[in-house]
Structure formats: structure tokens, C-alpha cells
Amino acid sequence: MEKRYDSKVALSIPAWNLESGELLGLVGSNGAGKTTFLSLLLDLLRPDQGSIRINGRALEADNSWRAVTGSFLDRSFLVEYLTIPEYLEFVGAAFGISKKETYQKLEAFEGFLPISRVDSKRLLRDLSTGNAKKVGILAALFVSPDFVILDEPFANLDPPSQIRLKEILIRTGKENHTTMIISSHDLGHVTEVCDRITLLSQGKIIRDIETSKETLAELNTFFSTDVVDSAT
Amino acid sequence: MKPATFVTSFRLLAKNQFRIAIRRIQVQQGWFVRIVIGVMLVYSAFILLTLGFFFDRFSSEVWPQLDPVTVVNRYLLAMFVSLFFMRFLFQKTPKIKIIPYLHLPIRRGALIAFFQSASLFSIHNFYPLLFFVPFWLRFVQQSSAVSSPEMWMVAVMLLIGTSHYANLLLRAILQRNAPFFYGLMSLFMITAFVDETSGIGLQQPVSEYMFTRILSGQIIEIWLLLLVFGTIAFASTLQLLKSVKSPEARSQPVRVTSLNIPESWGLVGHLVRLELLLLWRNRRPRHYLLVSLLFSTMYLVFMLGTGTAVNSSAFSALVGLFASGGFVLNYGQLMFGWDSEHYQALVTRDVPFSAMVKAKLIVLQGSCVALFVISLPLFISFRSDLVPLHFAFLFYNAGITTVLIMELAARNNQAIDIGKSGGFFNYEGFSAKHWLWFIPTALPPVLFMMAMNDSPKIALILLASIGFVSILLTDVWTHYFARGLNGRKHKMIEGFTKSAG
Questions:
Q1: 3-state DSSP of B370-397
Q2: Is B345 on the interface with A (CB under 8 A)?
Q3: Which residues contact A4 (CB under 8 A, 6 or more apart)?
Q4: Which CATH entry fits the domain spanning A2-78+145-225: 1.20.1300.10, 3.40.50.300, 3.30.360.10, 3.90.660.20?
Q5: CB-CB neighbors (< 8 A) of B266 in chain A
Q6: Domain ranges (residues) in chain A
Q7: Model-level ipTM above the cut of 0.90
Q8: B139, B109, B399, B147: which is closest to B238 by C-alpha?
Q9: Residue in chain B lying closest to A41 (CA)
Q10: Is B103 on the interface with A (CB under 8 A)?
Q11: What is the pLDDT of residues B312-359, one digit of tens each?
């Protein structure tokens, strides 16, 4: 699969596979192609060459994957003029979940974002970056999806929220057998949560490894000595 | 380090704001939009200048027994009130412009003084002069009955300035105390309505008396106007100072009330709610809603009330098109563009395009019914003979105009910042196709009504029937547009992302 922006190749992956139930961490420097990769997986971008298949079916040919996918890439995934309850009810409705069931499901995330205590009259656009991110992550997770895609979920969160999110992701992945792709610059968190790490550099996969005790040290060494992608 | 002096601050701010204004023109609009705006500006300037220089030819037709100066004096106050409503819809306040400077070592006084005075350089203040200056040169100065023509011009300038700062003041009041603002406006509207309809007609003699006295050299009225101007300018400056000193100056969280739609409506109900909230909670779409409401009420009063204005079949078709279809024509053409900021949120969820289109069609068709109901009393009161036309165009607009506009909207790929004001020259989201598309949308019913001039009843029955059949085909249209949107999805996302950046 290849994606170009004008003549520049942003992503070039000969072949890559993700098994059901895997928790994959996507790491790489700024400009490595992580967000492009996630956007391609969500059919927000179309590859110039090659294709993406979910359960053997081409992404663009079959929309059924949407009904089982929860995702949050950035603030554009929020509808900023809605309040938190309105937005979560809307996302629930998009997944065919009733209002009552939406609030029942949200109870499981009270520790991360206490929905019963949020200011229900405040618009999403008036929230801080961290709180807006929590809402986006919550919207991706509470619908009990089979497949979760999160871009930089730990960034901008306060330490307690980071710890709770880590627990939620591990619990969701292990207990619900949810397949996840999490891109992150936080090597510590990502190696704790994920059982597989894919390292992108200049649009290419340069490592694809099972997480072990040595992975964090290995990644630290790589980023301190090796490639620095251009963010320009 | 000392804060910059008043003069240095003024110079710095002037240089910076000038640069920003130039860059905004260069960056924001495409060439086609720039040409259209240019033509519109030249055309309206030409009309105002012509009206100013040759007002006698116009006034002798409508008020043959009055001289031009008396006519203008009589309607001067009413004219400024009308212009004020235009200002209120379109003119921006300087508050947003001040925010980036608040953290810098620039004296608050200099900031406020600069932006309050710079705000006077507005098209809303300049354009009225295109009428008043030639009128003054040709009629006021030349009149033998006038002893102080200069004072008359000073009075006009004071009225322009008062109107300018009153707009800023009222906007600040609306921001801080909405119930008080609405109370004030209601009181004003009721007074004006009672004055006009009960036959009292107080404002015309007051206006004529005041400006005739100014022309005859009475200085007291000028002092009175100066006092009003000074008070309003001072109050508006105080409000601006207060707003930049308040902790919410940088961002003012809006507290909202909810809008409930029965859950049984399902996803389409949620999407209808989303569209209605988009419309109500964001500045630019709300502006389009207000303009549509204004057309179907206030403007329609002028058009229908003057009796002879809507006589030709072509013009009556246009009135029919806009009276119930105004919202479809102006808000509808930018649909999907309105959603540009969160379009990705919609397409990554399990939200079928058919549900999205259906919700938008329901909102557009609903707007036709709402505007029809709102404007019906005006048709009944002023031109009951046009009620059948209004009724026929309800069906035509709900059935055909919505579909034609959706065909255009489904090709939008320009991002729109919905939080920005919808003032003059904010053509974000527009391209050449939006201007050109008006021809196939508005022209067919107009031409049809003209062609059927001898049988207007049959023409209306046919227009209504076509509209009605099209309404019955809503599901067919929904799937047609959904297919198109699915095919253009990536192009639209790419366009929204690029143009938003």
C-alpha cells in the first residue's frame, strides 16, 4: 500500500497484517506517517496503490466495519457545538444504542470521565484540550467496538487520567478481546498496554515486534540514536 | 521594560491591523468571489451616487408636491433606523481583534482608543456618504431656504457615528444581558409598529422638524445629537473596556439549553437535531437563518405593502421563491460545508449518507413550511391576491428548490468556520459554482411564470404539482444524493482539510 502527497511518498507498506484481538502500538517520530496510516485504516484517505482489507473484505467496498469500529484521531472527530451528553448520545445513536443504554455503558468509564458530574450545559468547543480528548476517547470506547483506533490518546491528559486510560485499554483489550491500534509518543505507556509494536520511520515500517521486557529499552535506544523524521 | 507609549502603540497597531486587513483580502477569497464583490461594490456605489445627485427625479415621481430636501429630512430618522438593522446583522465588533494584543505591554487605554476609532473605518459608515455627500452638494447647499447647510452635514455625520457605536453597544448588551436586550428591542419594535399602524406617525414629523431647524441655523438640535453621540460612544467604549478586563475576554463559554427530539425518530432524528443545533449555536449559520426570517417578514412588508411593487409575473415569482424558500436558497447552498469541521466524525461513525441527506432534506422542507406560515399573514394583509402564488411556491420550494440546492451542496468541498460572523465579504465556502447555480435554480420558475402570463392559475397549479410529486419522491432523491456523496467522500474530506488549513 502506498500513499503520496503530490510527489512525496508519505507511506509505503509492502504488506502488513493485524490479527483479531491484538493490541498494537504504532510509534514513530513526527512526520513518520502514523496519522496517515490511521486515516487510511479509517477510509478517510484513499491509498494511491494497494488496498486495506478487514476480514478479507476491501475497506471501501463494504461499510460494515464502521458499525464495529470506535476511533478518535483529533478534535475534528468531535462535533464542537454539542454538549458532552448530546455528543455521546449522538455517537450512541449512530451505533444503534438507545439513550438509556448509552448512560449504562458510560457508567463503566466513571473513573475516567464522570459523566454524571460533567457540566451538561457546556459546549465541547469550550472544553480544555485534555477534557475534549477524554470525551473523544470515551466516544470511541463506550460503544463496545470490536476494533479501536486511537491517535495519541495519552497526550494532553493529566497523570491520573493517563493511568486510568491505560487500565481501561488493557481491560478492554484483554477482557473484551478488542483489536486496537494506538499511536503514541509515550513509549512507556504504549509498551505497557500493547503486545505488539510497529515502528514507522519516513513512511516505512522498520520494526514490527512482540512486546517484551526489553522493548522499551530497545525503543529508547532507537529514538536516541537513530532516525529523526522531518516534521516539515 | 516600560509599556509602549500611547502614540507608539497607536502607530504599531495601525501598521499591524492594516497589514492584517490586506492579507485577509489576499488570502480569504478566490478570484471569482473577488470579482463578484468588486462588481457589487461598484454597482451599489454607482446607485447611491446616482440617487444622491439626481434625487429630485426620483422624489418628484413619488412625492411630487415636496422638495427633495424636505423628503430626505422627513425620512432621515427612519432611514437610519433601517440602516441600523443592516449594521446589526453584518457589522463586526472590535472585541475579537483586541484579544491577541491583551498579553502584550500595550496600555489598555491605547488599545481601546485605537480599536474604537479604527472601527469607524467601516463600509457601513462610508457607503451612506456616497448618497449624502452628492445630495448635500446638489440640493442642500444650493437651496436658497437654507442658512446652515454645513450643520446639516454635521448632523448626518453624527447620526452615522451614533448608529455605529449604538451597534457596538447593543451587541455588548446582548452578550452580557440577553433578556434586557430582547426587552429593549421588543419595546422599540412595538413602539415603531404602533406609531406606524395607528396613524400617529410621530417619527416623520419629528425628523422633519429637527432637520429643518438644523438647516435654519438652530444649534440646539446639533447639541442634542452631539450629546446622544457622545453618550453612546462613551457607553460603548466602557462596555468594550469592561469586556476585555473580564476573565472571560479570551473565551466566553456558552451555556446552552437542549433541544429534544423523540428517540423513536432514530438516527435521522439525531441528525435533524444536529442540523438544528448547528444552525442555532453557531454564528454564521444563525446569521443565515436571521436573514431568511428578515426577508420573510420585514422586507416582505415593504415589498407587499407598497402595493404596486409586486406586479409583474417575474417579480412575483421571485417573491414566491424567496418568501418560503429563502432559507433553502441561502443556508442550503452551503450544506455539508457547514459540517466541514466534524465531517470526519460523521463518516467514521456508522452514519449512512442516506440518513445524513434525509435529515438535511427534512430541515430544508421544514424551513419552507415554517417560512410559509410566518409570511402568510403578510400576504393575507397586504396582497391577498398573491396567497395562491405563495401556496404554490411552498410546494415548489419544498419539492424542487430543495433538490436543486442539494445537488449543488453535495458538491461542496470548501471548509467553513461556522463560529465566524456572517458579515459582508465573508464568502468562505462559496465558489463560482454557487453564483452560477442560482441561474438554473431561480430562473426556471420565473421564466415559466412569464411564459404563462395569460394563464397564471394554470401556471401555479403546474408549479405546485411538480413540487408535490418531487416531495413524494424524497426517498428517491435521498438515495441519489447518498450515492453521489459516497463517491465524492474522499474528495470532500480532502477539500475540507486543505481549505480549513
A1: HHHHHHHHHHHHHCHHHHHHHHHHHHHH
A2: yes
A3: A10, A48
A4: 3.40.50.300
A5: 93
A6: 2-78+145-225
A7: no
A8: B109
A9: B348
A10: no
A11: 788 888 889 999 999 999 999 999 999 999 999 898 888 899 999 999
